Amino acid sequence: MKKTLLLIFISLFSSGLAFSQGYSEYDGGLKVKLDDKGDKYFRFITWHQVWLRYNQNNEGSTRVGQAQEATTDVGLRRSRFLMYAQLDKRFLILTHFGINNQNAVSGGINAADGKKPQIYMHDAWVEYTVLSKYLQIGGGLHYWNGLSRLTNASTLNLMTMDAPILNWATIEATDQFARKLGIYAKGKLGKLAYQVAVNDPFETNTAKAIAIERANYNPGNVSKVLEGYFQYEFWDAESNLLPYRVGSYLGTKKVFNIGAGFINNNEAMWSTNSLGDTVLHNMNLFSVDAFLDLPLKGGSAITAYTAAYFNDFGPNNVRSIGIMNPADGSSIGSLAGNSFPTLGTGTSIYTQVGYMLPKKSEQLVWQPYAAFIYSDFEGLKDSKGNQVPVTVFDLGLNMFLAGHHSKLTLNYRHRPDFTNRDAIEYKPEVTLQAMIYL
Question: Is 0.85 topped by the overall pTM?
Fold first, then answer.
């Protein structure tokens, strides 16, 4: 008993070896070792991401029925708690819960306001090692996703302020905040890291909305979701203990990977044809991507990522999303607040690049970045029948006070307003994010 208490004390207050988050004062965070080797342990992680934002809303946006040309607000983008444990090298358990997207307008337990958000399970899975390094099998509510690296992104160490959202192709539709119930297998074969999963789709579109020649989610979908992601690691190997991919190593690793992934869900979508017949459509999504994190001379580093998504959600499918939307409606029935077409049948390209300035102190590190979204959706056309592309620009600056454990991010977004597809206007969105995680 005394030995166990001593190990816990040393584990909680020691420092040294975990540089993946860019700060040497953390040795795996709040990690409690239960044996001398550290093979048996449990670890706690908790984090908050707070946004202070100015948003010029899309035309006609309202809040409680009143016109809102622009909004300044404060919100909780994420507030989470995660714990995982390994009491034997052969198995692992992970539990992750929290809230997302709470502001004064939405995110609460009631649809009409943002009060008392519901804490819910994000991840809950168990895993067994079949062949060390080569094969682990697990199941539950999990995040071992297919499609792309960013579909498995860790929100603890994103290089940009946030993910582009198009990386989570079925977010809150057939999945639960990018998670699904199912079984997965993962491992490494030399330099090739792989993960595949068979999942159940969550019920969605329970109102049974359907349109002519425009696909929506099929409320009767009972087909399994098949997905996978494969990554070839040219330089340093990345950990695959957990699925959460690092967004920037801040010069502590030399990484270059290329990857490809997919999601398939037969009869996931439906629409009607010109005769009024119901037609079912398969969902087939595919992506290729590349990730670079390269330390440079003088203590600086460059981080870059690009992904191409080739998505088939059925004919003319388009879905608009506004993260932590500051508006609750629109006086002219258009896109409200900060929403813009984010997902749909067609092609999307996402690119981000950042440069970490030379480190002079771990307590203050700067990293400017830029990101770009280009999407070409077949269902997004102007009055003349021409497809209208979606372009979004982000410019940002990270100020790291303790690596990713404590950082401030200032982000400027140049966002399209699709209220009038014949004359797209661009609106500014400026956000200051404060993030701390332990």
Answer: yes
Block means of pLDDT (10 residues each) for the chain, 438 residues, are 43 39 75 86 96 98 94 98 94 98 92 90 98 97 98 98 98 98 98 98 98 98 98 98 97 97 98 97 98 97 98 98 95 91 98 96 96 98 97 98 97 97 97 96
Q: Token digits for 129? A: 């090692």
Distance CA(15)–CA(21), nearest Å, equals 13
3-state secondary structure of 199: strand
Superfamily of domain 46-437: Porin (2.40.160.10)
Cβ atoms of 415 and 392 within 8 Å: the answer is yes
Read off the tokens for 414. Answer: 């140049």
DSSP 12: H
Residue 433 is encoded by which pair of tokens?
């994010």
| Distance in angstroms (rounded) separating the CA atoms of residues 431 and 361 | 26
Interval 4-39: pLDDT, tens: 444 443 343 333 333 457 788 776 678 888 888 878
Q: Spell out the residues 6+ positions from residue 84 whose beta carbon is closer than 8 angstroms to its own.
A: 42, 43, 92, 93, 94, 95, 242
276 Rama class: left (phi>0) / alpha (psi -120 to 50) / beta: left
Distances (CA, A) of 58 to 101, 195, 257, 417: 19, 40, 38, 5
CA distance 411 to 77: 14
Distance, in Å, from the CA atom of 283 to the CA atom of 287, rounded to the nearest integer, reads 14
Chain-centroid distance, C-alpha 339: 17
**What are the tokens at 347?**
């092609």
Q: DSSP label at 150?
A: G
Nearest to 336 by CA among 55, 52, 62: 62
Round to whole Å and give the CA distance between 158 and 249: 10
- The residues spanned by each domain of the chain are 46-437
